[in-house]
Amino acid sequence: MVKQEVLESFLSDLASKRPVPGGGGASGVAGALGTALSLMVISLTVGKKKYRACEEELTAIRDRLEELKEQFLTLADRDEEVFLPLSKAYSLPKDTAKEEAYRKKVMGEALKAATEVPLTTMETAVEALKLTKTVAEKGSKLAISDAGCAASFLNTALVGASYNVVINVNSMEEGEEKETYKTRSGSLLAEGNELSAMIRETVLERLN
Fold first, then answer.
1. DSSP string spanning 46-64?
2. CB burial string 144-176: b at 16+ within 10 A, e below
3. Full set of structural domains in the chain with CATH
4. N or C terminus: fewer CB in 10 A for the chain?
């Protein structure tokens, strides 16, 4: 599990032929890195006389980002847990009508679970980006480049998770649930990309 592994071990597993961790787990770690960087900016801001006016707001943001950082790591672990049943489902026999029906049922359940996790990662990334936008606007100018890095990692988590949503949704049977996943994912991706662009603009303005 990501929470229990040192970075070197995680990267070794990621580079191997093992089915997990994969892009979903890496996206969760990217999100955790992004929130940690945003938290660093807050740590370098709170307590400074120059930024006293926004200290209360940044302190509240810090508390929520701490929760989101842990949530990203939990999602990285959860991604491993839901992918394994899906990988096994693909190998189920489908030679008879009974086998095919059973495989279809198992696949449907596994695909749903494997889609909801990266979708939650996307939701978490968008929330973290909203908070990081405020950090970029009000955090210490000395650490503003780190706020930009935070947004980059969070956007990576968002986009990476979106790929997992798409690949799973494409394997689903046509229906309302499939369309709901596609719509939600597309909306989150657009919102997150817009936030990332706004943060980048803010960072560049404050750097100059």
1. TT-GGGGGGHHHHHHHHHH
2. bebbbbbbbbbbbbbbbbbebbbebbeebeeee
3. 20-207 (1.20.120.680)
4. C
Fill in the DSSP letter of residue 52: G
**CA 62/CA 159 separation, integer angstroms:** 24
Q: In which residue are the tokens 């030679």 written? A: 95
Best CA proximity match to 51, nearest among 129, 144, 127, 130: 144
- pTM reported for the whole predicted model: 0.90
Beta-carbon count within 10 A of 204 CB: 12
Does residue 103 have a pLDDT over 90? no
Task: Assess contact for 188 and 122: CB atoms under 8 A.
Answer: yes
| Span 109-137, average pLDDT | 96
- pLDDT of 93 > 80? The answer is no
Give the relative orientation of helices 23-43 and 97-138 as an angle to the nearest 10 degrees: 20
Token code pair at residue 14:
């990621």
By the 8 A CB rule, do 147 and 139 touch?
yes
Q: What is the pLDDT of residue 99?
A: 75
User: Residue 139: left if φ>0, alpha if ψ -120 to 50, beta else—which one?
Assistant: beta
How many Å is the Cα radius of gyration of the chain? 19
For residue 32, what pLDDT is reported?
97
Q: What is the DSSP letter of 95?
A: S
Cβ contact 48:140 at 8 Å: yes
